[in-house]
Write a structure and sequence with these properties.
Layout: H1 14-21, H2 27-36, H3 40-52, H4 58-71, H5 103-106, H6 109-120, H7 125-132, H8 151-165, H9 171-187, H10 192-204, H11 209-217, H12 222-234, H13 239-249, H14 252-276, H15 278-287, H16 300-308, H17 310-343, H18 353-368, H19 409-438, H20 443-452, H21 454-457, H22 459-476, H23 484-522
């Protein structure tokens, strides 16, 4: 029963994603909603995401999108219609039915002049502060807006102010942009605001007007804008997936943080969540945890219970493991070790099935949680400091190899082997104690015989250290894969074995012998 509960400490089971996504909006359904709201730009990226996740309804969405594009070709360059586009109509090219990046419109002299006249009469202080940053000449990555070659910075400043004027920036993002703009105007240096302008330039060269405005509505901070721009440069093939996830969850911050934290595996986990619908993506983004490989069959009731009550499900899982291990050890205790203990004439308590069950359950908990002991692998999407050339979008190709994030079969076999060796050593020690107890000699002699066997009783520790040293040497020589978990588990099992032998068996039996010697001396 415990094995069937799909709950883990620092990871998500795929069964939880299936349960969370049950009955929620699928990717293709979300694309249809966008088309019905006359937003073909975002719908185009959602359609691409639906195809990438193999949504069964993706062909139907593709047919609906083509029909919409044929009927409304004039809306396609902008990605939809917005009453705020009226001041730009004079600079609008003839529509050919294809989406075009919004900066293609903004960079022309006519469009910028129209925007500047329109925004100059704005009564919003934030808009006026942004416009004043165009006069700053202390820049590091852009040519100043007022100099020859400063058209990109001028266009980005006007685009940002226009997004503010038309309420397409999220409230949190507005506060941060305004604070940075006021600081820049006060100091005469763009500073961190220049990084934000560079991020808007990156997104504006890849997204049309409605795509960009819809994304920034769900973006709550400057850091998230920077993360999305970084992902657009570094992994453009994942842009439809992360864009769809951001709009579907209304949380671009959570989606960007997840991709930056987990890199390429995180993109695959996000794609898996999208196959199950809106609820699965929200669960993944909220938990900010990787998806573990399925360990076998799960029952649906267990997934629903774990989703609604994750803490109780985790407690129930390991309580069930503890109960199962206890019952198994109790059976072994009664059937295998009872004859040996009877030979010792009740010299010490039985194995203590409860204590050993607790120890083994703890070890199982440590080794069965795939992301508990492993350090988080370095993400191939981590933010890096770079000074790109204006307009350049190329980025270094990330290393395709990513560290394994789950426990492989060789590690499990190594841990099992070390545990089996220590169990054998434990049985040998019990048999040796039983052999001493059967000797027909005085208690003092038995006590000396027990002292003589101290090296044997410490044998588990010696074997554990030898196993760890051997595994480390083999890893250094390259004969086996490097895995510190498998190596140090040998030492851990040795410590547990010696502690059980000496505390639960040797010490009580020596105490019995000392008391017997005292009684003999008194008599």
């Amino acid at each position: 029963m415990a094995w069937l509960l799909p709950v883990n400490v620092k990871s998500l089971n795929p069964a939880l994603l299936r349960e969370a996504g049950r009955g929620t909006t699928p990717v293709a359904g979300f694309g249809r909603d966008l088309l019905q709201r006359d937003k073909p730009g975002p719908a185009a990226l959602v359609l691409e995401a639906a195809r990438q996740v193999a949504d069964p309804a993706a062909p139907e969405l593709g047919t609906a999108f083509e029909a919409y594009a044929a009927l409304h070709a004039d809306l396609m360059p902008w990605g939809g219609w917005d009453v705020a586009l009226e001041p730009l109509l004079a600079a609008r090219p003839s529509g050919d039915g294809r989406s075009q990046p919004v900066l293609n419109f903004m960079v022309t002299q006519q469009a910028r002049d129209n925007l500047r006249r329109y925004l100059s009469v704005s009564r919003l202080p934030g808009v006026q502060t942004l416009l004043r940053t165009a006069a700053l000449t202390t820049t590091q990555r852009f040519v100043p807006a007022g100099r020859p070659g400063g058209q990109p910075l001028d266009a980005v400043i006007l685009l940002t102010a226009y997004l503010w004027q038309t309420e397409h920036l999220a409230a949190g993002l507005q506060r941060e942009v305004r604070a940075q703009a006021e600081a820049a105007v006060a100091s005469g240096n763009l500073g961190e605001l220049e990084d934000f302008y560079l991020d808007v330039l990156t997104l504006g060269k890849r997204l049309n007007w409605v795509q960009l405005s819809e994304l920034l509505r769900t973006t709550g901070s400057l850091a998230t804008v920077g993360q999305f721009a970084h992902l657009a440069r570094l992994a453009p093939e994942h842009l439809p997936v992360i864009y769809t996830a951001a709009l579907l969850t209304r949380s671009a911050d959570g989606v960007a943080a997840y991709l930056i934290a987990f890199g390429q595996p995180g993109a695959e986990h996000l794609r898996l969540a999208l196959t199950h619908g809106e609820g699965a993506v929200k669960q993944l983004v909220t938990r900010q945890a990787p998806v573990t490989a399925g360990a076998g069959p799960e029952f649906e009731w267990g997934a629903g219970f774990a989703l609604r009550h994750p803490e109780l499900a985790l407690l129930a899982k390991y309580a069930a493991f503890l109960g199962g291990v206890f019952l198994l050890l109790r059976a072994v205790d009664l059937r295998l070790f009872r004859p040996v203990e009877q030979l010792l004439r009740a010299g010490f308590p039985r194995m203590g099935s409860g204590l050993i069950a607790a120890i083994l359950t703890f070890l199982f908990f440590v080794f069965s949680e795939p992301f508990l002991l492993k350090a988080a692998p370095l993400s191939d999407y981590s933010l890096r400091l770079s000074i790109p050339v204006i307009g350049a979008t190329a980025a270094p190709t990330p290393d395709p190899s990513t560290p394994a994030t789950t426990m492989d079969l060789s590690t499990i076999l190594s841990i099992t082997l070390f545990a089996a060796i220590q169990v054998g050593m434990y049985v040998i020690c019990l048999l040796k104690i039983a052999e001493v107890a059967r000797q027909d000699v005085e208690p003092a002699t038995k006590l000396k015989l027990m002292d003589n066997e101290e090296n044997l009783f410490d044998g588990g520790l010696y074997i554990g250290i030898a196993g760890t040293a051997t595994a480390l040497v083999l890893q250094v020589l390259g004969l086996i894969d490097a895995n510190l978990l498998a190596a140090y588990s040998s030492n851990l099992f040795g410590i547990v074995c010696v502690a059980l032998v000496k505390i639960r068996h040797v010490r009580p039996y020596k105490r019995q012998l000392i008391l017997a010697m005292q009684r003999s001396a008194t008599t």
